Amino acid sequence: MYNLLLDKIIEKVNLTCAEQEIIQQYFVPKRLKKRQYLLQEGNVCDRLTFVSNGSLVSYSTDDKGCEHVISFAFDGCWAGDWASLYGKQPSSLTIEALQPCELLQIRAEHQELLFTLVPAYERFMRINHQNTCAAFQRRLESSLGLCADERYTRLIEESPVLAARIPLNLIASYLGVTPETLSRVRKQKYIPA
Amino acid sequence: MYNLLLDKIIEKVNLTCAEQEIIQQYFVPKRLKKRQYLLQEGNVCDRLTFVSNGSLVSYSTDDKGCEHVISFAFDGCWAGDWASLYGKQPSSLTIEALQPCELLQIRAEHQELLFTLVPAYERFMRINHQNTCAAFQRRLESSLGLCADERYTRLIEESPVLAARIPLNLIASYLGVTPETLSRVRKQKYIPA
DNA sequence: CGCGGGTTTGATGATGCTCAAGCCCGGTGG
DNA sequence: CCACCGGGCTTGAGCATCATCAAACCCGCG
């Protein structure tokens, strides 16, 4: 259960056995069934989640009740509402299990402790957040600069895994279009004749 | 020149005088005139920039030559192409001075050194990147969930400073609409009669 | 077998873009 | 000092993209 977590960290920084022990102590396991919520809009997100196994989706809900997918998280990914977690504000996101999940969670205040106890963990998180920023930036670039079919094309180029594992209506939401539009884009793309 | 930089860091973490000295040594000053480029699309972004004074805009350019503003940076802000800086890939962004700027820059490899020499600096950057993630997330939420006039309304609520200092055509680009559309939105909003 | 979620298809309509022109205003040079 | 220029902003008309609404379809599952 903890193997993937430690592997992912060791991929970026060195950890002694003792440090690995400490890290494990602060991450508590949690299971979610399909369709269960990890976080609901309005609650404060007070812990960071690592996905050992399964998949999660984060989405915001607008005035009209429409849901907009902000991100997905698969095995080895991290999930949470960054704005809530680091701003101590109520979450605007809902996070839900797309499949049965095995998760590892650390509470925000425990993570602060861990940063001090294991500096390498803090370094890991710094790197992790750098990559998250980079990913968000790229996402914004496509969202602002490309039209529907280009966004879809780029998505399947860059994240074939995602395209394969996620139902089309959620991919549509992630791309910022309706399922109908995505359907037409795909038709266009694969039956160009 | 270095005061604002150190202030911003000390706002989040403690620094001894010796550490402040070390940090200063790695940040080298640079001046930019209005309209000058800090980074051009295609080059690798190999340094992180702190704005002591002035303002910068980062934008990506699409196939048709249209520019899409990704972010602004004012006094006390950080700028760079995260995807390029942390992914070692050619930048898809151009960064340009909107006003004469006084900047402080640190090279990526020097920053790695600094992380080790001054752990508090690494902590600061971790926090800084957390906040950047949170900001990107909020931006994506409005971009996906709100229509043009709602995005503009939220912008002037949340960043009146930005709305005051930036010409409308750049705000339009930041919001993902054309200047014409923004103009009509503003008319609508302030002359509702 | 029938239900229901996800996907597709079609017709219609709104939002926001494009193109084109005019306006406002500050800066420059005669 | 004024006339001219140019960039930023506004306004208008027509149009493309994509959303909406509605219905049919497909297929796994109870």
Question: Can you walk through the features of this model?
Answer:
- The structure is a homodimer of 193-residue chains.
- With 193 residues, the first copy, chain A, is of the alpha+beta class.
- Chain A has a domain at 3-114: Jelly Rolls.
- Chain A contains nine helices and eight strands.
- Chain A has helices spanning 3-10, 17-26, 82-87, 108-117, 119-145, 148-158, 160-165, 168-175, 179-190; strands spanning 28-32, 37-39, 47-53, 56-61, 67-73, 78-79, 93-97, 101-107.
- In chain A, the strands form two sheets. Chain A has a four-stranded antiparallel β-sheet with strand order 1-8-3-6. The first copy, chain A, has a four-stranded antiparallel β-sheet with strand order 2-7-4-5.
- In chain A, a hairpin with a 5-residue loop joins β4 and β5 (67-73).
- In chain A, α2 packs antiparallel against α4 (108-117), α4 (108-117) crosses α5 (119-145) and α8 crosses α9.
- The model of chain A has no long low-confidence stretch (mean pLDDT 93).
- The A-B interface holds A 60, 62, 66, 68-70, 81-83, 85-87, 92-93, 115, 119, 122-123, 125-127, 129-141, 143-146, 176 and B 60, 62, 66, 68-70, 81-83, 85-87, 92-93, 115, 119, 122-123, 125-127, 129-141, 143-146, 176.
- Chain B binds a DNA duplex (30 and 30 nucleotides) through residues 147-148, 167-169, 177-184, 186-187.
